[in-house]
Each structure stands twice: as C-alpha cells, then as structure tokens.
Design brief:
The complex is a heterodimer. By secondary structure, chain A is α/β, with parallel strands linked by helices. Chain A contains seven helices and twelve strands. Chain B has a single domain, classed as ABC transporter involved in vitamin B12 uptake, BtuC. Chain B is 84% helix and 0% strand. Classes of the chains: A alpha/beta, B mainly alpha.
Amino acid sequence: MAVLRIRDAPGGGLDAGTRTPAGAGVPAVALIRASVTLGGRRVWGGVSLRIEAGEFVAVLGPNGVGKSTLLKVILGLVPLAAGSVEVFGGPRDGVRTGYLPQRRSFDSSLRIRARDVARLGLDGARWGIRVPFARRFSARSRAEDRRLEEVLDLVGASAYADRPVGELSGGEQQRVLIARALGRRPTLLLLDEPLEGLDLGNQQAISGLGSRICREEGVTVVMVAHDVNPILGHLDRVIYLAGGGAVMGRPEEVITTETLSALYSAPIEVLRASDGRLVVVGHPDAVSFHGHR
Amino acid sequence: MAIADLAEQLLRYAFMRNAFAAGTAVAVLAGVIGWFVVLRGETFAGHTLSSVGFPGAAGAVLFGLPQLLGLAVLCTASALGIASLGRVAEGDRYGAPAAIGTIQAFALALGFLFASLYRGLLNGVNGILFGTLLGITQAQVVLLAALAVLSICAMAVISRPLLYVSIDPDAAASAGIPVKALSVAFLVLLALSVAATTLITGALLTFALLVMPAAAAQQLVTRPPVAVLLSVALGVAIVWLSLATAYLTDYPIGFFVTSFGFVVYLLSRGVRRLSLA
C-alpha cells in the first residue's frame, strides 16, 4: 500500500505514477514538478504524475483546488509556471484530444439541433462554410457524416439528435457533448465534471459510458468529479488534489484516512458505507462524497 | 398584372431604384450578421453600435465627410471599445452590459452635440435617427454592395469556428480556435453592418433589421445554415415591403421596417407555439 505523496517540499516530488497497471510504454500524460499560478495565486505546485495510455482516471478534490486547471494544463490552455507537461511523450501539438468543459447546461433559448452541436467536434475548427451537398462528391464529407452517426449512436443520442439542444435534459446534453468530444477519434478524453447536476441514474449512465469509451475504444479517459462514488467501480486510479499538491494511486490507496490526512495536513477520516460507498469526513472542504443537495 | 404595374411604379425613379438596391444589400448583410448576434446574446452591443451611428452620421455631416465613412469609422472604433472595455471577448456577462451602456449614453450625447453644432440640419437629424428613403446616391449603393459582399465573405470564412466559439468557447479554444480574435473580428463586422444598416433604417431603428428577422428565424428553424438563409429572406422581404409601403403612403420607412419586423417576429413565436402544441 505504498502511496506516494507529492508535495512541493524540498527535494521535489516523487513520480506518483511509477506503480501503474499498464507499466512501461509512453504515458498518455506526464507532469513533471509542474506548478500553476493564476492571477498571482499559486494553484498547485510540485506536482508530478503519470497517466498511462488506456487508463480511466478520476481527478478528485475540494472546490477551487485546481481540478479544471489540471485539464487545461494538459490541453495547453493554461501555461505552467514551472515544470513540464508531456502528452503521449511530446508537446501537445498533433495529439487528438477530446474535451468536455465544465459548464452549466445550455439555455433553452439555444435553438440549434443537437446533431449540429455534436458535429462541431468534427469540423468546427475548419474555416469556410460547409459546401452544400458535399457528400455527393467529397469522401471526407461522407466519412464525417458516418463518424457523426457513429458517435451519436455510441453515446446513445441518436434518438434526439434532431431536437434543439436547449430543449434536452442535462443528461442528454452531456451525451451530445461527449459525442462532440469523440468526433475526431481522440486518444485522450478529458471530461470536466460531466456528472454535475445529473440525477443518480444519469450519473451512473454517464460513468458507464466513460468506462465503455475507455475499455472498448481504447481511449485514455480523465474525468474530474466531485463525488467519486458513481465512478468508483470503473476507475483504474485517482488523482486527489488538495493543499496545493496531489496524490495519485488506486482509489483504495488514495482515499484513505492516512493519505488524505497527510494531503490536507489535517485530520481526515474515510468511512466505508455498507454499500461500498466512500464518505470523507473531518475537513470542511473534503468532498469525496457529497450527500443530497 | 397589378404586381408588374406596382413594380414599374416603384422603380420608376432613380432614388427608389437606389433605395431598393441599397436596402436589399443591407438586409442580406444584417440577416447574416444578425443571426450570430442573437445566437451570441450580443443584441445590446448591436443596439449600442447603432446608437453610435447617430454621432457617426451627424459628425460626418458637420465635418463635411461622406456619411457612410463617418458611420463606419465611429462604429468600428466603438466596437473595439466594447471589446476592450466590456470584455465581451472573454464572456464577462455581468460587467459587459454596464460598460456597453456607458458607450451608448456617451454616443447619444455626442450625436446631440454634433446636431446642435450644425444648426441648419433639423430634417437631417430626423433622417439620421429614423431613416430615410431619399438621398441614397448611386455611389452609396455601390459602397453598400461592396461592404455587404466583403463582410459576407468574411463571415463565410469564420462561420464554423465562430459558431463553435459562440456555443462553447472553452471547447473551441481546446480545438485550437483563436477565441478572442474571433470575438473581436465579429464585433468589427457587426459594427460595419450596423453602419450600413443605419443609412437605411436610421440609428434608432437599426435593431429592427439586425435582430428581428434573425430572432424570428431562430424560432422557426434549428439548422444553422437554413436559419441564416431564412433570416436573410425575412430581412429582404421586410425591407421590400417597407420600401413599397413607405413610397405609397409617404410615411417614414423606419416605422414600416420596425412594424413589419415586429409582426414577423410575433408570427414566428406563434407558429412555434402552435407547432409545439
């Protein structure tokens, strides 16, 4: 049960990802003594971690600890103040990454078909208009049409793909956005709080979908979550951010009284309910289980 | 044959032919730009830029410059001001309206000052505020058409990334789209189309042509390309109908553009309500 603790202590951080199921090979993501400063405030620092290709990893931790920032660092949207980040062994250019930003639901006044929103993941970054009737003479256009149907089907959104996205439920909207993120066959899928605001049934469905994408499509999935329990059964490992540092390991290694107490530098207790759910108590911010809201 | 007679009567004079040509160019441009304005929730920015049309046009008259030049320069400058002051580009939905409103109030005051300084211009002020059929020159028609063609080409180039940015800026940024640059570019295109529209509808009623057809189209159609085309078609229909009515009745054109636009919008809401039921 060697849990490696990464802090910005003198001597630098250890590599938390040395014990991994996948073992050797090029990691999907490697952070080396990475630090982030936003608006003069240090968000986290001295973080080293390794996400192996094909893993399903959750990013946990209290509000404002920099979970979304970690995804943005991986995407290259937020620069590092120190340290380095590599995606599939190099800089991020050319790596196909799917991203579901943290967000509120679409306003009901957004009158655009779900299908058109999902399609942005395929060709939304391309300049110029889509040529009308392009599928008659363009093989690429036909391939994109097929891929769109494929991802809509994969996430189970085909039935409501022609409805305006603003009229869909929160769970349906998340499926459409995951379809959008999958469009260009990413090797790395970053999901920022996809379970937020969903009912329990939808939380489980989206968790299962993330797991399926990981196992069946071979995509490395990194999911930021508030509550680990809906995804606990699917996860390979977790990254727990708190106190300006990070711990990475298997859930049963990280979400323990000892590890979290050390991370928070405060007494924390991890309880296991009879149904297997984990409850973190003792710190006002410790929200690995969230109760009913 | 009544329609042919009517068309013949409407197009008999050069000023009406100019008005139809200019109005069509402006309606097409406003229809395209307006759809994105409504989508992006930037109607207030659009309205403010049209208020800027007042000092723009009045200043041009005062200093003896071409109206379209005065409009385009001041509207573009204000768009850049909105982009930096209101941080529209960063999606600040709370600070932005106050900053934009500040620009709007200042623009109206400046327009009033220019109009006061140029004492002999009472009728002109009316035309600047509420639009006029008369006095659209051949040269203006050519300029408006060129402006419309160039702006629509620019919109065609940026349309897909702009749609992505408008719906989900964070995901768009992760796809390598320059989010801020696109938002500023769109504000400048909006400013130019407002300048063009103001020549026809007047500064206070630009909103009618910019927002109403687009808002109606969004009620009716959910496929973006089709919705943009419908927005253009509604805008052109509104302008043609308004020009004809204004010519035949001798009442101001701005009133008709606004009224027909309002009716079209109400009808679109009604149609959608019925289709849901």
